[in-house]
């Protein structure tokens, strides 16, 4: 970031009432999304506070920073070797979001899934953060590191890389308040917001599938059988470590 001023560490912010509120919503979404995604190899990049692969049943699961150390712009996987990649706010914090997204597209198999969480600049939380940046005084509401990426902007990027969005939703409609009692008082707005102004939630969830023109499903099935016999040798998942 080029602007100067008070800063909040992301891990510390996630322990605050609004941080826990955001994390709880994201955990609920990702638990439901990945439970029925099948394959052999899944990877989460960023935000270790979110246990994004806990309900997924793929035999090989990695969390970058815990199970393996790597540069997000140069992932230690062969091309077309992963079935699922999860990016919880990783694009916002990347040095170059375009480079990271292209690298993810490289390592995903045809028909592989990508899940992204992002903070929505077109929300009350985004507005408060941007006003605070302009004033350059006081403590920012959200961590200062990173840049918001608009929902429709990200969809355009995904389309250029031949991703097809198959599911998307917004959440976290309560105002940008700091204390739990005040957040609790605004709990009623969740249902109203999701019904009347759904695209104004503070965070968005996108699930996309990598499409490759001319790919035959028979070929995909054969590739997955081969992948099951020879997994990418980059790290051990938690189950393997216990053996």
UniProtKB/TrEMBL annotation:
Q: Which Gene3D superfamilies match?
A: Vaccinia Virus protein VP39
Keywords attached to this Swiss-Prot or TrEMBL record, sorted alphabetically, are: Methyltransferase, Transferase
Task: Please give the SUPFAM superfamilies that the UniProt record associates with this protein.
Answer: S-adenosyl-L-methionine-dependent methyltransferases
Pfam families in the record, alphabetically?
Answer: Methyltransf_11 (PF08241)
Q: Origin, by domain of life?
A: Bacteria
Q: Does the keyword Phosphoprotein apply?
A: no
Q: Name one GO molecular function term.
A: methyltransferase activity
* InterPro entries (UniProt xref): Methyltransf_11, SAM-dependent_MTases_sf
Q: Where is the Methyltransferase type domain?
A: 68-116
Question: Could you mention a single GO BP entry for this protein?
Answer: methylation
Q: Which protein is depicted?
A: Methyltransferase domain-containing protein
């Amino acid at each position: 970031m080029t602007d100067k001023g008070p800063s909040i560490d992301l891990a510390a912010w996630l322990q605050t009432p609004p941080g826990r509120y955001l994390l709880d919503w994201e955990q609920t979404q990702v638990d439901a999304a990945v439970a029925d995604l099948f394959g052999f190899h899944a990877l989460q990049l960023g935000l270790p506070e979110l246990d994004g692969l806990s309900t997924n049943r793929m035999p090989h699961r990695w969390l970058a920073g815990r199970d393996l150390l790597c540069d997000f712009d140069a992932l230690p996987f062969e091309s077309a070797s992963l079935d699922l990649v999860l990016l919880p706010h990783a694009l916002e914090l990347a040095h170059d979001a375009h480079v990271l997204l292209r690298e993810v597209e490289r390592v995903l198999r045809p028909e592989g899934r990508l899940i992204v969480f992002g903070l929505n600049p077109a929300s009350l939380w985004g507005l408060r953060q941007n006003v605070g940046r302009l004033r350059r005084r006081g403590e920012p509401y959200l961590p200062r590191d990173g840049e918001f990426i608009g929902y429709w902007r990200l969809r355009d990027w995904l389309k250029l890389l031949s991703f097809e969005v198959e599911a998307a939703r917004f959440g976290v409609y309560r105002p940008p308040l700091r204390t739990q009692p005040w957040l609790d008082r605004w709990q009623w707005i969740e249902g109203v917001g999701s019904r009347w102004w759904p695209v104004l939630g503070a965070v968005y969830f996108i699930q996309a599938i990598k499409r490759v023109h001319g790919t035959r499903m028979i070929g995909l099935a054969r590739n997955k059988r081969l992948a099951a016999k020879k997994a990418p040798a980059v790290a051990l998942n938690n189950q393997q470590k216990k053996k």
